[in-house]
């Protein structure tokens, strides 16, 4: 991927004046030098903006001038506003964690008098829920609705290899070894690399897409304006379109296909090593019906 443009990221902090903006910039430079992922830097900026947007106008102006004047009451306002806007508890807690790390940095620099975030006072209880895989009875109609080789490949990579949507988005041709039937994921979540095997239907779809190779580098190139690769939000919209075409009423995200991969592992023949680091092709007994549905020659368009 293209290197992160830090100046462009900082420009999104339009509620902050120069002094406060520079404090955030220094923090981002520090964590970038410590090899934090680009998405973490983007999340910090999003957290600061989300926090400021939740405050009353007077406090927005005051903290825009001096972010170090943030108080516990300001954090109270953020949590109350976020709950009122039905933000998910995990989103609220993640925002608080990101802000707390930033405020800790200012404390260490001697620029903040006290930490405004108190765990017991501000953290929101987040119930633990089970992962939601796509139901087996919905998998077949969903893939039947897909009439594009590219789109079929995108969702097969999630279902057969358990890839995250961000990992699919940034795949390069050099990550694939069709002769060995493997795909290498570089710098995955937690900056972990792994190698996964390709199932027969996935390998067949990959070879069909390779024959049309729309770009020499990226497996799924973007439009070239904002990103060289297909955006994750675009993949989400594509999935929603196919769900509607298949008349599937349940709500699914691309990540549900990754969970479907994980739930199929116990039913697989041979040695199942888990979704986090599987090194063998999970070929489930009940995949025979699905495999017939996923024939690449059924796709109408590239």
Description:
It contains 14 helices and three strands. It has 302 residues and is mainly alpha-helical. The chain has two domains: 117 residues, Tyrosine recombinase, N-terminal domain (DNA polymerase, domain 1); 163 residues, hpI Integrase, Chain A, CATH 1.10.443. Strands 1-2-3 form a three-stranded antiparallel sheet, with no helix packed on it. A hairpin with a 4-residue loop joins β1 and β2. The two termini are 24 Å apart.
How many structurally independent domains? 2
Tell the overall outline. elongated
Helical residues, percent:
40-55%
Total of DSSP H or I helical runs spanning 4+ residues:
14
CATH homologous superfamily grouping of the largest domain = Intergrase catalytic core
CATH architecture of the largest domain: Orthogonal Bundle
- Going by helix content, strand content and strand pairing, the class is mainly alpha
Round the Cα radius of gyration to an integer and report it. 22 Å
* CATH class category name of the largest domain: Mainly Alpha
Q: From the structure provided, what is the oligomeric state, counting identical versus distinct chains?
A: single chain
CATH fold description of the largest domain: hpI Integrase, Chain A
Strand content: under 5%
